[in-house]
């Protein structure tokens, strides 16, 4: 009984710590930018011209139609990664790989696991700061196919609406590692059972992205599915050591991972090439899915990532970012977990939690 009481106390203290962190972030965000700048358009012709005229930029910019009506304030809202308090992750294991593990010079999860349709999907988070949930659910969906041969699309809405305070603040942002802990403890239903709430978006002039986090209903929209039976779980939640070799090894052996990084103004203008920050102010933290890596003909190493801003943004929804220099913190906060066979009805006998890379 004493141990149980102590556990509850630790959990309560952690929740209070996270609440204080969220409040502190909101206060800082409110003071960090003048109102006039907050209301300015995030896209700027001058920024596009400056980047495209830079001979060493390494990437091309354009006036992305995805954000043609967005103010800086609206754009900041969809950057939903909150900085995790250091004390909250001391018990999270960090995965490392031996240096002798041989890895290919180029790797793309879409071709390595071509039978997994989820890896090639580009989704749209709409006007909700739910990137932290998308990165986790998309990666776990991919890993179910890689490890168990099951093509399944899992529900971002379940995680976003039902994780509650443990994950952060819903559409106002969250913590990727706690999203993975939710996937371990509570699992996540299929997308068919609980589809994403923001399918329409906000397009009319002057429209504010004031989406409220959806309610947790715990009831399938699909009549042929039962909530508890539609749950898919992760076995564990862990971080990956920030050395690029470890990140590459994790993706190569287990599938796509969720990564967080700092977004600057110029990132909204990305079209193609290997992104690195050139100009503009820091706007917030964003989470995406890392699916591979490679090197350009010019010898520049890059990571290959899938964003969730629809296919109209960037390179058909994807982007590349400089690899090996921790550009924008891309290698600092990499998280993942392995899929669990719980609730699965498998059509093959050999399920050992491993997968061969094609």
Automatic annotation (TrEMBL):
GO terms for biological process: proteolysis. Belongs to the peptidase C1 family. Pfam families: Peptidase_C1 (PF00112), Propeptide_C1 (PF08127). Keywords: Disulfide bond, Glycoprotein, Hydrolase, Protease, Signal, Thiol protease. SUPFAM superfamilies: Cysteine proteinases. Residues 1-29 form the signal peptide. Residues 103-338 form the Peptidase C1A papain C-terminal domain. It comes from Dendrobium nobile (Orchid). One of its GO terms (molecular function) is cysteine-type endopeptidase activity. This is Peptidase C1A papain C-terminal domain-containing protein.
């Amino acid at each position: 009984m004493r141990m149980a009481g102590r556990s509850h106390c630790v959990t309560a203290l952690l929740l209070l710590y996270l609440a204080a962190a969220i409040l502190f972030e909101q206060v800082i965000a409110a003071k960090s930018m003048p109102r006039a700048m907050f209301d300015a358009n995030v896209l700027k012709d001058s920024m596009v011209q400056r980047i495209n005229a830079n001979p060493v930029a390494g990437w091309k910019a354009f006036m992305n139609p995805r954000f043609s009506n967005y103010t800086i304030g609206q754009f900041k809202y969809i950057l939903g990664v909150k900085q995790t308090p250091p004390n909250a992750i001391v018990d999270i294991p960090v995965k490392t790989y031996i240096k002798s593990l041989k890895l290919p010079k180029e790797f793309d999860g879409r071709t390595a696991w071509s039978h997994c349709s989820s890896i090639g999907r580009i989704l749209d988070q709409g006007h909700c700061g739910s990137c932290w949930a998308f990165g986790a659910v998309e990666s776990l969906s991919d890993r179910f196919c890689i490890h168990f041969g099951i093509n399944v699309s899992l529900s971002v809405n379940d995680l976003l609406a039902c994780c509650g305070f443990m994950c952060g603040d819903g559409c106002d942002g969250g913590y990727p590692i706690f999203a993975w802990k939710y996937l371990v403890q509570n699992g996540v239903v299929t997308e068919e059972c609980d589809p994403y709430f923001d399918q329409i978006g906000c397009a009319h002039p002057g429209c504010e992205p004031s989406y409220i986090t959806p309610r947790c209903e715990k009831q399938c929209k699909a009549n042929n599915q039962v909530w508890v039976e539609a749950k898919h779980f992760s076995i564990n939640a862990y971080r990956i050591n920030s050395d690029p070799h470890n990140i590459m090894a994790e993706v190569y052996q287990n599938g796509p991972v969720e990564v967080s990084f700092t977004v600057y103004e110029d990132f909204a203008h990305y079209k193609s090439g290997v992104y690195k920050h050139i100009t503009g102010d820091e706007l917030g933290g964003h989470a995406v899915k890392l699916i591979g890596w490679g090197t350009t003909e010019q010898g520049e190493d890059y990571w290959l990532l899938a964003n969730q801003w629809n296919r109209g943004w960037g390179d058909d929804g994807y982007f590349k970012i400089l690899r090996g220099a921790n550009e924008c913190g891309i290698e600092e906060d990499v998280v993942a977990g392995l899929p669990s066979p719980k609730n699965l009805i498998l059509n093959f006998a050999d399920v050992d939690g491993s997968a061969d890379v094609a």
